[in-house]
Amino acid sequence: MPRMLDVSDDVRAEIGDEEADRLLAGENAPGSYDCTSCRTQGDSELERTSTVLFVGDETAVLAFAHATCIPSQVVQVAEEQLQGAVRSITGGGPDLPGAQHAGTPDQAVLGITSGLVLIGGQLHPALVVEPTGPVSRPGSDGSTDEFLPLVIEQGFEPVADLTEVPAALPGWSVLLAMGQLHAVLQPGTGGGNQVSWWQAHQPLQVTDGWRTAANKSSTVLVFAAPAGAIGQQPREDLLRNALEKAAADGVLAAAAMPLAGT
Known about the structure:
This protein is an alpha+beta fold. It has 2 domains: 5-90, no CATH class; 100-261, no CATH class. The chain contains 6 helices and 15 strands. The strands form 3 sheets. Strands 7-8-9-14-15-11-12-13 form an 8-stranded mixed beta barrel, surrounded by 4 helices. Strands 1, 4, 5 and 6 form a 4-stranded mixed sheet that branches. The protein has a two-stranded antiparallel sheet with strand order 2-3. A hairpin with a 2-residue loop joins β8 and β9. The chain starts with a strand and ends with a strand.
């Protein structure tokens, strides 16, 4: 029986016309499925359903989601990280936070913190990204921490205070799937598919309040600061204070990014 599937051009290009046509005809697509975004059951015979392709270096995993939750898209994941995504998609194995990496030149390990930040009387879902150590440019002697200049070159804006919401950064997005944080995505080179700037080895939990706020605004504020500027703050008021201090010290940058998923 034909399925009400959305197969984007990017997904079709990856899986081929023959496989895409078989999916649309219902040969290889499930009727019912667990949405990879909201975790509730969907039915591709009764409601529009997105095909979401997680692609590694050698492996690809096709998942399904309500079209109202997440559009059909290709999500590129490092091969060694794909097994975590597989466990998340299939619901197997514990979801334990692990080391995270960003697409900075030397693949610095990043810490990431989620929290709600009050700006202009409104609570905004935010992520704070901070390397565990200095980030140097390729070919440099590594003696200077270049993380802040690098993210500003990528389109983040310097933050002087927390009185205004940062501007949107075109081509970037925050991927939330099955209610957990998977990646911060940036534009691919040459106008290609988005690639991971930051990628969770294991999907990271966010609070219900954070997820509700993100779903309401469909936007996440991403703050970036060099190593040691923010630190791991156990409460949102302390996180706010640390962000304000980093802004006052001139070591904070930020961007607003659309939310992909729920």
